[in-house]
C-alpha cells in the first residue's frame, strides 16, 4: 500500500485538465496553489515562443514534467507514416525547447488495419525517432490506452504490450507512461508494473478516476476519489518498483471544463491528497 501523500511536491497538473485557461493563466494559478509540476499539451503552445514559455514556467517554480503528445504512427500508406514520424521529430524539438524531459506517445491505430500490423508500425515509428530523441535528451514514453480506444487511438492497450515493445526497442530513450484510467481493470497490472520497474521503464504516472456511469468515452473522466479506481493501491505498486516521479492529474471532462476552474483546482488538490 502506498504511503499517504503529505504535500503537493509531487503533484503535477496537465494543461488540458484546466483547458479553459491559457497556459500563462494556468501556470500562475498552479504555482499560486502550490502545485509543483506541469505537463504541457502541444495545443497550449500554439502561437507562443516555446523556449520563452518554458522559462516562464520555471520562473514560476513549476517543473516541466512532459510534453503531450506525440505518436499516431500507424497508417495505411507510407507517406502518412512518414509525416507522423516528421511530426514526432518536431514534438521532440518542441520538448527540448520547452525543457520537457519527455514526449508522451498516444501511439495510434487505424480502423480496418490489424492491431498487430499497427503495433509493428508504431514500433518502427518510435525506432525512427530514437536517434533524434537521444540527441535532444528527450525520452519517448509509450502510453498504453484502454482497449475502448483500440479502433483509432492506440493499438497498445495493455501494459504487457507496452512492456513488450519497450523491451524489444531496448533504448534508454524509450519509457512507459502508466495511466490509471487506461490500466486499472487489467488483471495482470501488478505483475506488469513489476516488470516495467525491473527494466527501469516507468517514466510517468497519470491519475484521474473512472466514473460510473461514464457518459462520454473521452471527456468524462472523474476526479480522484469520484470513481472506482483504487489509485492508492496502483500508486503503491508503482512506487514499490522505484518510481519517485510526479503524480500527473490528467482529466478530460466536459463537465469540469464548464465549471469555475479555481474551484476545480481546489478539488484536484483535495482529491490528490485524500484519494491518490
Ligand atoms: Zn495519460
Q: What is the topology?
A:
Layout: E1 11-14, H1 23-32, E2 37-41, H2 50-59, E3 63-71, H3 78-98, E4 102-106, H4 115-136, E5 139-142, H5 159-169, E6 174-179, H6 180-183, H7 189-198, E7 202-207, H8 231-240, E8 247-249, H9 254-257, H10 261-275
Parallel strand pairs: 1-2, 1-8, 2-3, 3-4, 4-5, 5-6, 6-7, 7-8
Helix pairs in contact: 2-3, 3-4, 7-8
Bound molecules: zinc ion.
How would you portray this structure in words?
- The chain is α/β, with parallel strands linked by helices and 276 residues long.
- It has a single domain (2-275), classed as Alpha-Beta Barrel (TIM Barrel).
- It has helices at residues 23-32, 50-59, 78-98, 115-136, 159-169, 180-183, 189-198, 231-240, 254-257, 261-275; strands at residues 11-14, 37-41, 63-71, 102-106, 139-142, 174-179, 202-207, 247-249.
- The chain has an 8-stranded parallel β-barrel with strand order 1-2-3-4-5-6-7-8, surrounded by 8 helices.
- Helix 1 links the parallel strand 1 and strand 2.
- The N and C termini lie close together (11 Å).
- Residues 143, 179, 206, 250 line the site of zinc ion.
Amino acid at each position: 500500500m502506498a504511503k499517504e501523500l503529505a504535500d503537493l511536491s509531487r503533484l503535477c497538473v496537465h494543461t488540458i485538465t484546466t483547458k479553459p485557461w491559457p497556459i500563462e493563466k494556468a501556470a500562475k494559478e498552479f504555482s499560486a496553489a502550490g502545485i509543483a509540476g506541469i505537463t504541457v499539451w502541444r495545443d497550449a503552445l500554439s502561437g507562443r515562443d516555446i523556449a520563452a514559455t518554458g522559462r516562464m514556467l520555471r520562473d514560476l517554480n513549476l517543473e516541466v514534467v512532459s510534453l503531450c503528445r506525440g505518436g499516431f504512427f500507424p497508417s495505411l500508406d507510407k507517406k502518412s507514416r512518414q509525416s507522423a514520424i516528421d511530426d514526432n521529430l518536431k514534438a521532440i524539438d518542441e520538448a527540448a525547447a520547452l525543457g520537457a524531459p519527455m514526449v508522451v506517445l498516444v501511439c495510434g491505430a487505424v480502423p480496418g488495419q490489424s492491431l498487430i500490423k499497427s503495433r509493428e508500425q508504431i514500433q518502427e515509428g518510435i525506432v525512427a525517432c530514437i536517434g533524434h530523441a537521444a540527441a535532444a535528451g528527450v525520452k519517448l514514453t509509450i502510453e498504453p490506452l484502454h482497449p475502448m480506444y483500440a479502433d483509432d487511438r492506440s493499438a497498445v492497450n495493455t501494459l504487457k504490450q507496452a512492456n513488450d515493445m519497450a523491451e524489444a526497442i531496448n533504448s534508454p530513450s524509450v519509457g512507459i507512461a502508466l495511466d490509471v484510467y487506461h490500466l486499472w481493470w487489467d488483471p495482470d497490472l501488478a505483475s506488469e508494473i513489476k516488470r516495467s520497474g525491473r527494466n527501469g521503464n516507468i517514466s510517468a504516472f497519470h491519475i484521474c478516476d473512472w466514473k460510473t456511469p461514464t457518459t462520454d468515452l473521452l471527456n468524462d473522466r472523474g476526479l480522484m476519489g469520484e470513481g472506482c479506481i483504487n489509485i492508492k493501491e496502483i500508486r503503491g505498486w508503482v512506487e514499490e518498483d522505484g518510481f519517485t516521479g510526479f503524480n500527473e492529474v490528467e482529466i478530460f471532462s466536459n463537465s469540469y471544463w464548464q465549471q469555475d476552474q479555481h474551484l476545480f483546482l481546489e478539488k484536484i488538490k483535495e482529491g490528490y491528497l485524500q484519494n491518490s
